[in-house]
Amino acid sequence: xxxxxxxxxxxxxxxxxxxxxxxxxxxxxxxxxxxxxxxxxxxxxxxxxxxxxxxxxxxxxxxxxxxxxxxxxx
Length: 74
What we know:
It is a single chain. Helix content is 86%, strand content 0%. It has a domain at 30-74. The protein has three helices and no strands. The protein is flat. It is mainly alpha-helical.
């Protein structure tokens, strides 16, 4: 259990370090997207895909729950 906690803390620390180290970099592609206004399209598409995945998971969970209830009642 101690190894698991250590591993989680280590991974979290690495994630925080990489997130803070990227603040000073300037990505050419992102700058172009901002300048042309396409960044909103990219964010919208990613949001729609994410919402679709969430919707699918909720719908699948309902179906699984319904099947589990039918099996319990038999």
